[in-house]
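Lab manual, section 2.4: Encoding a predicted structure.

Procedure: take the sequence of the chain (90 residues), apply the prediction step described in section 2.3, and record the output as structure tokens. A sample record is shown.
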Amino acid sequence: MGGRGIALGFEISRNLGTGGVLEVKYEDSKLQSIGDDPNLIPKELHELLLVTKFKHWEYEKEVRVLVELSKTCPAGKRAGTSIPLGRTFA
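Recorded output:
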């Protein structure tokens, strides 16, 4: 594909996170919504936005696990700044 990056693989439980392991859906076109207010996006579309990518990325066979950052970050750390993976890469 010509790109550079890193792929991480994990053995995980299917019931991990708030909704379990979610398989990414790959689509030929963008999802459509009316308006820009995220509070007005229908729940079904909101859920699709979390697990949908462009068809070009289908070779990745990606899955996602959704978690509440407030339940994963140690006390005193700002949520959303990092999630430690156990090893630091330089």
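Check your result against the sample. The chain has a mean pLDDT of 75.
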